């Protein structure tokens, strides 16, 4: 829209002319009538004051809308950075570029994740399960996936949630009424985003080598989350194999998580974090 230049000072030089604008109408008894509006000269240009006013209003509304859309898109983009729940803050630096793929398995899994990004970009919807040894870089790849998807479009929303930390925060609200991290807060947030990572499923139940069964509370929260995301992408990471998942959790819950899934499996990769320790 062409911007309107308004005279800088008031009063400015205005003279009514003998011409009338016929653009404006009013309705009387169900019939539309033209309401003539006398034109005027403003700084040497003949114009209709009503048309000028309408144009100013439209421009004002367009400016407000543009500002709103800008803020809306920026807040979508920032969900990943501002609302993600992380146990390990170093994950914030994780990208595909910083993922060190050395073994054949790491290289093929990185490639697989990049292909998954492309499929999501093309509008496909399916769940992803990154499964395998602790420290194989599953969370790194999962966060890298989100980073890529977050850059795709301004209206895309992504969120990374450590399941263990989320459960801890929710439990904390039982005694701390000031905390915003209620069960409802997480259910609303996790159900709203387009791409969600549920990181380290199973860790919240404690030692995963025991035959511990997830508590009703954990099952209830995870079930509500997966239930609300049936038409959205959920990317899960876990150290547990599928048998253990089915033993520890409600079968319906795991079936939801594994519905139409793409697996990224780490069978050979050892703990990358342990290898990088200086001893
Ligand atoms: Zn007019």
Describe this structure in words.
The chain is α/β, with parallel strands linked by helices and 279 residues long. It folds into 2 domains: 1-77, no CATH class; 84-275, 3-Layer(aba) Sandwich (Rossmann fold). It contains 9 helices and 10 strands. The protein has helices at 49-83, 104-121, 138-150, 163-172, 183-192, 216-228, 242-248, 251-257, 272-275; strands at 14-21, 25-28, 31-34, 37-42, 45-47, 127-132, 158-162, 195-201, 233-238, 261-266. The strands form 3 sheets. It has a 5-stranded parallel β-sheet with strand order 7-8-9-6-10. It has a 3-stranded antiparallel β-sheet with strand order 1-4-5. The longest helix has 35 residues, at 49-83. The chain is elongated and about 90 Å long. Mean pLDDT is 86; it is low at 273-279.
Order of strands, widest sheet: 7-8-9-6-10
**CATH class category name of the largest domain:** Alpha Beta
Tell me, rounded to a whole number, the average pLDDT: 86
Helix proportion of residues, in percent? Answer: 40-55%
CATH architecture annotation of the largest domain: 3-Layer(aba) Sandwich
CATH superfamily of the largest domain: P-loop containing nucleotide triphosphate hydrolases
Return Rg in Å.
29 Å
Assembly state of the chains shown: single chain
Question: Strand portion, in percent?
Answer: 15-25%
The helix tally amounts to: 9
CATH third-tier fold name of the largest domain? Rossmann fold
Any idea what the shape is? elongated
Number of domains: 2
Unreliable residue stretches: 273-279
* Helix-strand sequence: EEEEEHHEHEHHEHEHHEH
Instruction: Name the ligand types.
Output: zinc ion
- Major sheet characteristics: 5 strands, parallel
């Amino acid at each position: 829209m062409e911007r309107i230049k308004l005279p800088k000072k008031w009063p400015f030089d205005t003279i009514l002319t003998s011409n009338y604008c016929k653009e404006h109408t009013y309705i009387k008894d169900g019939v539309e009538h033209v309401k003539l509006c006398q034109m005027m000269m403003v700084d040497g240009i003949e114009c209709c004051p009503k048309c000028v006013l309408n144009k100013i209003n439209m421009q004002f509304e367009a400016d407000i809308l543009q500002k709103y859309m800008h803020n809306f898109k920026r807040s979508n983009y920032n969900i990943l950075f501002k609302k993600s729940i992380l146990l390990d803050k170093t994950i914030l630096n994780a990208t595909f570029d910083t993922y060190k793929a050395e073994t054949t398995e790491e290289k093929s899994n990185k490639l697989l994740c990049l292909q998954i990004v492309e499929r999501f970009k093309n509008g496909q919807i399916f769940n992803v399960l990154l499964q395998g040894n602790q420290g194989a870089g599953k969370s790194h790849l999962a966060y890298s996936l989100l980073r890529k998807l977050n850059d795709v479009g301004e209206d895309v929303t992504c969120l990374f949630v450590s399941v263990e930390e989320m459960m801890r925060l929710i439990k904390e609200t039982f005694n701390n009424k000031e905390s915003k991290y209620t069960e409802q807060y997480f259910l609303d947030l996790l159900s709203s985003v387009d791409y969600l990572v549920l990181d380290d499923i199973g860790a919240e139940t404690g030692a995963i080598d025991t035959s511990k069964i997830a508590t009703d509370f954990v099952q209830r929260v995870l079930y509500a989350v997966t239930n609300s995301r049936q038409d959205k992408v959920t990317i899960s990471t876990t150290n547990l194999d599928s048998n253990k998942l089915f033993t520890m959790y409600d079968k319906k819950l795991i079936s939801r998580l594994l519905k139409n899934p793409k697996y990224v499996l780490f069978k050979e990769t050892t703990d990358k974090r342990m290898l990088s320790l200086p001893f």
